Amino acid sequence: GNPWGYGKQDGPSVWHKNYPVAEGDRQSPIDIVPHQASHDPSLGPIVLNYDKCTSIKIANNGHSVVVEFEDSDDRSVIQGGPLGNPYRLKQFHFHWGGKDCHGSEHTVAGNSYASELHLVHWNAVKYKTFEEAATAPDGLAVLGIFLETGDNHRWLHTITDVLYTVKFKGSVTDFKGFNPKCLLPSSLHYWTYLGSLTTPPLYESVTWIIVKDPIIVSEKQLGKFRTLVFTGEEEDQRTRMENNFRPPQPLKGRKVRSSN
Ligand SMILES: Oc1ccc(S)c(O)c1
Ligand SMILES: [Zn+2]
Fold first, then answer.
1. pLDDT, tens only, 24-50
2. 199 lines ligand 1 (CB under 6 A)
3. Residue owning the nearest CA to atom 5 of ligand 1
4. Predicted ipTM?
5. Residue nearest to atom 8 of ligand 1 (CA)
6. CB distance 120 to ligand 1 below 6 Å
7. Nearest 5°: CA angle at 202, between 167 and 126?
8. Which atom in ligand 1 lies closest to the alpha carbon of residue 196?
């Protein structure tokens, strides 16, 4: 059966049974309270070098839809901001709700967005593999982007048009030549704090960089994410993939910093 999921029996409220770090001191996501974030003038801009990025495939891993990248060299990296060195792009994936009123993982002053995009990067300067970095306190850097419903997003169709090919858990499709820079808002002002993966194994290895401005996508585009299912094609159950988000976790004294 499933080691973990988002249902009653296997969801966020019981993850601590198999993953005790779920009750740790630097868990994610969190509620971001803008006026309690400390503005840090020493925080420089986020710099993304994605122009030579190489997307490889898009997959349904039973928890989300993930686009994987070639990460054997520094062709696509994030640097600057709170990061001490460049971090290599590994994959991006989304979290979303069953309705537009919720679906993001991080919240802002208690408010949820409809979805949240995570661009996952790893510290290839200090660590040899993603797996090793994923267990290190400075191993990962995840850029979080909020999605809000409104007008159609000009480029998101590149992803939503192929979701039908990865409907079932375990399905994979070639997905080359996609540059995720097209999914970013114009301003990269951000909040940053130290946290964790928001899915098991919940490793406390993530420097979170949450972009303040959401991107706007249409209800129709978001609805296509909800046509995916958590279950495999061979299973008789067809459980819609939605509400694959973890709720905010205790801040435990952590400081959230704000770029300008
Ligand atoms: O490698 C990762 C997997 C899942 C999530 S939510 C991350 O932030 C990183
Ligand atoms: Zn995520």
1. 999 999 999 999 999 999 999 999 999
2. yes
3. 197
4. 0.94
5. 197
6. yes
7. 105
8. 8
**What is the Cα–Cα distance from 187 to 144, expressed in whole angstroms?**
13
Whether the pTM exceeds 0.90: the reply is yes
In sign, the C-alpha dihedral spanning 25, 27, 33, 37 is positive
Ligand 2 centre distance from Cα of residue 83 (Å): 19
Residues tagged active-site: 63
Residues flanking ion ligand 2, Cβ below 5 Å: 118
**Number of the ligand closest to the Cα of 27:** 1
User: How many other β-carbons are positioned within 10 Å of the β-carbon of residue 36?
Assistant: 12
Given a cut of 60, is residue 234 above it in pLDDT?
Answer: yes
The span from the CA of 79 to the CA of 211, in Å, is: 14
Task: Report the helix count and the strand count for the chain, using DSSP H and E.
Answer: 4, 15
Q: What is the pLDDT of residues 80-137, one digit of tens each?
A: 999 999 999 999 999 999 999 999 999 999 999 999 999 999 999 999 999 999 999 9
Q: What is the pLDDT of residues 129-150, one digit of tens each?
A: 999 999 999 999 999 999 999 9
DSSP three-state, residue 221: helix
